[in-house]
Amino acid sequence: MTAQVQDVLTFVQQQAPFDQLTHSATDYFVEHLEIIYVSGQNQAQWFRSEQPQLYLVRSGHFDLRSERGELVARLAESDYFGYPSLLTGEPISNQLEVVQAGLVYVLPQDAFDYLRREYKPFEQYFVRAHAKRLLSSHYKESASGWSERPVSELMNRAAVTLQPQASIQEAAKVMKKHRVSSIMVIENDQLTGVVTDRDLRNRVLAEGLDPARAIREIMTVRPKYIFENNRIFSALHLMLKHNIHHLPVLNEDRTPMGMITSTDLLRQQKSDPVQLIGRIYKARSYGEVQQLAKEIPDLLSDFANKIEDISLIGQLLSGLSDALTGRLIDLYQQQHGTAPTPFAWICFGSQAREEQTLHSDQDNGLLLPEGVTDEQRDYFAQLGAFVCQQLDECGIRTCPGNIMASNPACRGTLSEWCDRFTTWIHAPTPHAMLNCKIYFDLRFITGSDVLFGQFLHHLNEIPKNELFYAAMAADINVNTVPIGLFQQFKLQQDKHKHKYLDLKKRGVVIINDVVRLYALQAGISKANTLQRLRALKSHQVLSGEDIANLQDCWRFLTQLRLRTQIDREGLPENCINPEHLSSLERHQLKEAFQLVKQAQQACAFKFARGSL
Amino acid sequence: MSWLTQLRSWHADRHLRLVDVNLVVLDLELTGLDPKRDEIVSAAWVEVRRGRIVLSTARHVVNKEVRQLGQSPVIHGVDDDALAQGLSLRTLLQQLTGVLEQGVLVCHNAILDWGFLKRAFIEHEMTVRPLRILDTMQIERNRLLRQGQTLSADCLTLSACRQRYALPSAYEHNALSDALSTAELLLAQNSQLGGAQGALLRQLT
């Protein structure tokens, strides 16, 4: 009879999902385990594609990397790996990199399958873990990221130190002289304490303490510290964990080397694209703006690998476009004189929704005040033409539909713009509906936000009757999700006979359309779909669950869509061949489309009253 | 056996690696340290096949004939219940011969365990010849000496050895968890000494 190894059992019982399962499941798991010792040299022999197994880390540290070498997960005690292959039946694609050798528990496929069949929570746990990894794996911070670098790279000045018997006033003087917010207190070359400007405030001034007294009395004794060869990430972790803003850095002999502050870390953390926006706003010439714009594609693909929430990518690109536009307008005014009247530069469509991609084209316009003269209109005509042409040279293509400030129709006064909207709303032809879908997603970029505020107000005031909403709902339902009656994908085919699904047109766009309609009805003047959904929570039109579902679907589809832009397979933009997805991803995609379909139908029912 | 087959098997033996053989990692609970006077309270073992510890092979057998438990029940956690579920020493030894035949015996401080086992086998007129006996304590001792380290009194205990490989500390100390701890230590040593392919058996003896 097999004897139970109590040690293994105790460990496994503490792990999810076994902490929620019956003893029989845990016993079965432990009985079928094998234990291996995985080291850098011997690891190749353990992980073979033809024999998928479940692995549970007992000790050691391992980095799981994708085929492209990006860090998927950092594994330590209690982490599982190997389950994606067990769930999907697809070959193992990730690579293991041993950081520190250790023990790994191994469960063979048939035992995994048995547990999955017999215990629902077991199955659920791993399906969820897999889904979570799918969503985040491609956008995890890569190892070359700033947080992996040693602390020493952050330090840019020598340690500022004092003896413990130095007076408080002296400490303040030294801090002033070196322009630092903290000093290290040293005795026999060893760190004994830290005094920060906060201490001077809280422990001296607030207490009315005599500044002639020794800093020994007010210092933080035995402060937390970090070694100069530790990773920046560890420093960040330490500071967050203990809520401290100053961290002494020691070398291996425990000699104080310097201090790092939370500001130093923040400066590091600031992503390069954010810095780029800052640089664009400071550019001194058109040429410089164009130069900076050239950096965008590279920076963006680099950034896409580092972040988890890729809806940020759209925001970031829109932020960059905003910066380019804003700076070009400033430069134009510097050269050709300040605009003769207040104005607002606005954007529409994907830039307004902050969903921009590298392939998005320009959608913009100019809002002018009432009573603008012809002469003044000339100024804005030139401004519009100039900015649109410059943006094109920066890589943002001109709009084929001519929705640009260079087009006279897109340079209107408040009432001219309102007239255009009113026409579309009152005569909801298909063409008008198309315009509504573009122009109702609008956002202020630069100029007079007062003017823009007035415009939004007027836009909301235009009466919208049921006929308009019904027409919008009908228009949304012209577009169908690519799912058949029996849950199969309905694929499109291009001229090369490639089969594909259009994630944007038949997924993301439908969600955007549905959400826009609800937002219009609720009078929400945001353009971003996720922001609109968030705002809709306080209105009674959609249930909390519906909102959450739409948010999840939108994120999932956008994520997949962005991934296809990263590794294209010769398909049209935003398209995907479902056969290249794992079975789990296919399942999730069907669920997502199903939810989109429900939302679409609900919207038709609500606004079109079955007139479809 | 002709000298040629002998030579051949000697040659094959020289190239035998740890992953090529079945290992039986064993720990005994004893009433004392003297094989002549003291008794086996229980024996626990787990097998290592192809470099993997196979938990389904784990066994823990209590010798129900043990006479002089004395202080030990407290230490070993062997109480009357456990004794009642135990087997005779003969059955215990028979089970062990089954796995030891054609296997390599592994213990931490094998002199002690093998001393007791050898004596018990003789007393029961049984013969058992493990392929080889490995001692994780000796492996560690030799490794440290090769590195030119001076050995302190307690640097070769099972837990001290495990710490050196950053293996997790055990929750419990009974024969079975010690047998598993020894097996894990052996795998770590095997990787340390043998790299990608694992160590040769002769490197470990």
Describe this structure in words.
The complex is a heterodimer of chains A (612) and B (205). By secondary structure, chain A is of the alpha+beta class. In chain A, 48% of the residues lie in helices and 15% in strands. Chain A has a four-stranded antiparallel beta sheet. In chain A, strand 16, helix 15 and strand 17 (411-413) form a beta-alpha-beta unit. By secondary structure, chain B is α/β, with parallel strands linked by helices. Chain B has helices spanning 3-14, 72-76, 80-84, 89-100, 110-123, 136-146, 158-164, 175-194, 201-204, and strands spanning 23-30, 40-49, 52-62, 104-107, 132-135. Chain B has a five-stranded mixed beta sheet, with helices on both faces. In chain B, helix 5 (110-123) links the parallel strand 4 (104-107) and strand 5 (132-135). The mean pLDDT of chain B is 86. The A-B interface holds A 1-8, 10-11, 30-37, 39, 41-42, 44-45, 58-60, 77, 100-103, 106 and B 44, 46, 51-60, 165-168, 170-172, 174, 176-177, 180-181, 183-184, 187-188, 190-192, 195-198. Strand 1 of chain A pairs antiparallel with strand 3 (52-62) of chain B.
Short description:
With 612 residues, chain A is an alpha+beta fold.
The number of strands of chain A is 21
Rounded mean pLDDT score of chain B? 86
CATH class of chain B: Alpha Beta
Structural class per helix/strand content of chain B?
alpha/beta
Rg of chain B over CA atoms, rounded to whole Å, is 18 Å
CATH architecture of the largest domain in chain A: 2-Layer Sandwich
Number of helices of chain B: 9
- The number of helical elements of chain A comes to 23
Domain Exonuclease (chain B): 22-195
Pfam families (chain B): RNase_T (PF00929)
GO molecular function, one term (chain B): 3'-5' exonuclease activity
Organism (chain B): Pseudoalteromonas rubra
Highlighted features:
heterodimer; A: 612 residues; alpha+beta; Jelly Rolls; CBS-domain; Beta Polymerase, domain 2; 4 domains; 4-stranded mixed beta sheet; 21 strands; flat; B: 205 residues; alpha/beta; Nucleotidyltransferase, domain 5; 5-stranded mixed beta sheet; 9 helices; 18% strand; globular
